[in-house]
Write a structure and sequence with these properties.
With 370 residues, the chain is mostly helical. The chain folds into two domains: 257 residues, no CATH class; 75 residues, no CATH class. Helices cover 65% and strands 0% of the residues. The chain is built from 16 helices and no strands. Helix 6 crosses helix 7. The longest helix is centred in the N-terminal third of the chain and has 29 residues. It is globular and about 65 Å long. 42% of the residues are buried.
């Protein structure tokens, strides 16, 4: 699983933000870069504890909500058009590659192919692993698009009733988990994403609206751990840690509570960095690149992992390697390195779509260098 851009200068729309010179946006850049790295690592190794250590999707939705609230100082329709315009072209590039591959393999598009153009619902794909890997990240773009469309309404509700608005998605998630409401699959998936990560998006908006800053400093550190414990309790009582369900992602209400509590803490303790701390200065280029090409990284990382793993597995065909270094062939580290090498290639090949979508001069490797 993955997933906005600042207004000026603008970057890719789904999960990136232009590095700014002042204050806490450098900290946000770091959070987004860590979130992307964790997403790639999780989709490769599948360790169930990784979303507990760092809930990447909650973090990315919260940062996107912050940017959306900042942008809504301008007319709402103007902001929505700008966000949608910068969201779709990188997805269309992925769709062109994926649809071409599926047609070559005998797939014939139907009416639902429209969701490859406007991802209001899940797009169709072949029952092949490579096709599913390419289409899977689009759930984030679908959720992001709905959050963008609903943001003017959410912001009005937040200003009038901040805490009921913030907690409403979690309450709705708990209600849906009991199965009291049966919905068509396309509607159910979109609603589940909203209830799972809606509180994080609204929390980001609340921070931009200075609602969180009005609380006494001790409130969030006192309350957030209990929210996270409630999420963990819900997860354990709904199969987390068993052979049937080892992923927090499969338990929406637990994911919603854990992500909300963690994001509360990350936003509360955000440092004011006018410049990078000394230990992080060496990573400035990498962090800038990941933020500048976050949409490209998120959209293409799954298929890069698939190709990397498939390529590395071919080395078992060489008996000398299987006999002498089986531990190396079994290791996930070389696969991760190869996957990031392929992601870097995708940045060069397809990343310029983010610049074109933002009406900016295309750049092959936007790491902040000269």
């Amino acid at each position: 699983m993955i997933p906005p851009t600042a207004e000026a200068p603008s970057q890719g729309e789904a999960v990136s933000i232009a590095p700014r010179q002042g204050g806490r946006d450098r900290y946000f850049d770091l959070l987004r870069a860590l979130a992307l790295f964790r997403v790639v690592l999780y989709h490769l190794v599948g360790w169930a504890w990784l979303p507990l250590v760092f809930p990447s999707m909650g973090v990315m939705f919260a940062l996107a909500g912050t940017l959306m609230a900042r942008s809504l100082k301008r007319p709402a329709m103007q902001v929505i058009r700008s966000r949608v315009r910068r969201l779709l072209p990188p997805m269309w590039v992925l769709g062109a590659v994926c649809i071409t591959g599926m047609v070559v393999h005998g797939w014939r598009p139907g009416p639902s192919v429209v969701f490859w153009i406007l991802p209001l619902s899940d797009p169709p794909f072949l029952a092949a692993e490579w096709s599913g890997d390419m289409a899977e990240p689009l759930w984030y773009l679908r959720a992001y698009l709905w959050f963008v469309l609903l943001s003017p309404l959410l912001l009005r509700c937040l200003r009038r009733l901040p805490w009921p608005t913030l907690l409403a998605p979690v309450a709705l998630s708990a209600f849906l988990s009991f199965g009291y409401l049966s919905l068509p699959e396309r509607i159910d998936s979109a609603l589940t994403d909203f209830t799972t990560f809606g509180a994080c998006w609204i929390l980001g908006m609340a921070r931009e609206q200075v609602i969180l800053q009005r609380l006494p400093r001790y409130v969030i550190p006192s309350v957030a751990p209990f929210i996270m414990l409630a999420g963990l309790w819900w997860a354990v009582h709904h199969g987390f840690g068993t052979e049937q369900d080892l992923e927090l992602d499969g338990i929406p209400t637990a994911q919603a509570l854990w992500s909300l509590g963690a994001v509360f803490l990350l936003l509360h303790f955000s440092p004011s960095w006018q410049t990078w701390p000394p230990r992080l200065r060496r990573w400035d280029g990498v962090i800038t690149l990941l933020n500048s090409r976050a949409v490209t990284v998120y959209l293409w990382h799954n298929i890069c992992i698939f190709i990397a793993a498939m390529t590395w597995d071919q080395l078992w065909e060489f008996e000398v390697l299987g006999e002498n270094v089986p531990w190396l062939l079994d290791s996930w580290v070389p696969v991760l390195i190869l996957a990031w090498a392929l992601i870097a290639l995708c940045i060069v090949l397809f990343g310029s779509a983010e610049d074109l979508a933002a009406k900016r001069r295309p750049r092959l490797w936007p790491n902040g260098g000269g």
